[in-house]
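Exercise 3.2. Students should predict the tertiary structure of the chain below and write it as C-alpha cells, then compare their answer with the key that follows.

Predict this chain's 3D structure.
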Amino acid sequence: MKRITYAVMGVVVFTLLAALTVDHFYPQDKERYRSEVIFLTRRAFSSIVCSSNTTINRKEVRTVMSVLSKLKQARQDLLAQIALIEEMRRGSVIRQFLKVRLKGQTEPIFSGPYALYTFKQKGKTVSRRLHDLEEIRRLEQHVENYHLFQQLCRRLVQISEAICQEKEKGRNR
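Answer key:
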C-alpha cells in the first residue's frame, strides 16, 4: 500500500509543478497547456490503478501488458490528444519587413515587422495582414494546433500499422 501512496504522491507533485510552470512561463497559452497537464495526469493515474496484473515498485510502475494492448492504449491516448484540439488552421503567421526608400536618403530602410497570415486557397497563396495582437496570437495558436494535429495523425498511422502487424503475427502463430 505504501508503494501505491508514493506513486500517487509523485503524480500529484508532478501535476502541481507542471501547473505552476504553465502559469509562470506560458500565461498566454495557459488553457491549452493546462488541458495537456490534465491529460498526462489522468494517464499517470490510470497506470497506477491496481489490478491483478500490476506490480507497483517505488522506482517505477510496471504493468504487464501484451504489445498489442500497449499499442491500443497508445492509440487511445493519441485519439484523446487529437480530441483536445478545438481550433486549427492551415498556413503560417510570419513577420514581414518592407524596404522603404525615404526622400533624401540613398539607402532604403526596413519598416516593420508586420504580422502576415498566409495560406493556400484554390492553389494560390493568400495573405492577410494582421493588426491586432490578440488576433496574431490566436492565429499563431491555430496554426500551431494544425501542425500538432498533423504530427499526431502521422503517429496514429504508425501505431495503427504496428497494431495490424501484431495482429498478423498473432494469426501466424
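Discussion points: Confidence is low (pLDDT under 50) at residues 49-64. The two ends are 39 Å apart (CA to CA).
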